[in-house]
Amino acid sequence: MKTLRTLACAALLAAAAMPAVADPPSPWLGGVVFSTRGYSEGSAHAAGEYLDLGLFVDPFELAFLRPSASLRLIVPLFPFDAGRIDGAAGLELELFGLRRHPLRAIMAQASAYAPALSASRSFSFVDPLSGEWAIGAHPIRLRTGDARYSFLAPELLFGPGFEPAGWSLKLFEFSYLIFEEPRR
Amino acid sequence: MKRTLSGAGASRAAAAAVVALALLAASGCASYGKLERYREAYPDAAAFFESRGVPSFGASEPALYMDGGAWYERAMELIAGAEDYILISSFLITDIDRQEAIFDALAERMADGVRVYMIVDSASYYRTYPMDAEPIPASTPLARALGIPLIEYNPIRGRRIFTLLGLLDRDHRKFWVVDGRTVVTGGQNVDYDSLRDVGSGGCVDAMIEYDSPGAAAFLRDSFVRTWNAYSLDRLDPGDFAAEGDRGEYRISIVDQGLRSPGLVTGMFDGFAAFASEELWLVQCYAYLTPSLLDKVRFAVDRGVRVNVVLSREHVTARALYGSYYGMLDLIDAGASVYLYESDVGSLLHFKLILADGKLASVGSANYNLRSQTTSRELSFVVSDPESLAMIRSELDALLASCRPVRREEARRYRGLPYLMQNLLMQFWG
Description:
Number of helices of chain B: 15
Strand content of chain A: over 45%
Structural class of chain A: mainly beta
CATH architecture of chain A: Beta Barrel
Largest sheet of chain A: 8 strands, antiparallel, barrel
Oligomer: heterodimer
CATH topology of chain A: Porin
Shape of chain A: globular
């Protein structure tokens, strides 16, 4: 039964990927990501405004369940405190891309409504085991040919033992594709 | 020269100066020794270009269009005669009757089933001209209204502020590919400056055309790669037929396309290293770096007569001041400098390098740091007698309206305003 379920999932994913695989590829492999956010009281992060900046790879052009991965720095910006800069590694799963969407008029570039789910692990550079897990959603997220724009993305935070540890809210997250894949 | 530095221009220049100085220092003076090594390693420019990965293709039926009117007529012919597809890459598209006519013609042919795609640069949105009180609007909205598929290269938008210096990356190329057979490149945009007649103040500029399926396939691939980087509607090069590699001549294509650095520098190196008698640089601007001057000096030191033709007229004060500043450097490097003078304010926008009357490049690349680094550029390098004869003839016609610039005059353009604008234009121009 378990094997059957695994095969069914694999077939579903393959079927979802088929249209995208057949599409001509974009030359991009990854890029840079910036976001601003704040944390709730009680989380491992002190109150303040934080800037995330990092690198991401977005190598699979799938029409559904498109994964990407990132490595970031979480920088306490206001007030700035270089001693409390943390790192984070995360995965993001774009659920789908919808070309005809109500927000398309806000950009001159053609865009797709592309909500996503995310999971990440933050860590302190001083004590790498002391970080938090975060599970988030990007309900207002647009993709263009060379960028992704997300607004008001909430995250639930969990401690090292997955106990609830508060929440955070990303006001915006802008990702720009700037690194090319080697020429095919 | 009646144009003066504005306060805003001065502060922009000051802000850019620090960055420019750092970059100039970094660009160094390494060109001279490098060019010597190239001369030892390669028998001629063709072998050098081949070693740099510059492809060449069979081509025939060259044609050269030297002003907006001539190119407009030819562009309309190409549109009318297209049967399958038209790919257009134009750095600028701004409003003018002829641009509108071109767009209308493209839309009509799309209705006939001809596929049309355009790549433009966001710099189209920010065009002002000293002779016009109002900025000239970009034609992007019109193209979209007509249903012409179009993407903007590296859009300049507030939400892209975090790309920082990435916004300096601009697609300065101008080329057309029609039906996998006809290829055209040069300095002319589908815009206000390029499409006006020279007699009414339009640019003096070239578009050079060939019948070359091989070059068409190469440029199609370059176009599609750029398109797919910015569009969600992906194109497949296989859907745009361009087959074979035929033609009595060979043209080489220097395509510094999406993230393809260094090819323009290689082109400059090839001309400077292998010219043996005479080198002509016809250029709009003279925003020079030590490295670019080294190339001139290297040729001069080998006994090559280096002649540089610049434009007296410029669209902006910053371009005029910045460009005039470079004249003395060229003269001190041993070049003869000429100014093209137009009675009606035409800008000399032609970008030509001609070596010994035997090798020429025509395209979009300016002899400056931006074209070497942060701009996407495209030039055809040609050596067939027919093309060279046409180019030489146009150069001779230009020279009839040129005057030499003496060192004493060039020294007058070395004040602080000239220096500041020259530094600014290392990035802005």
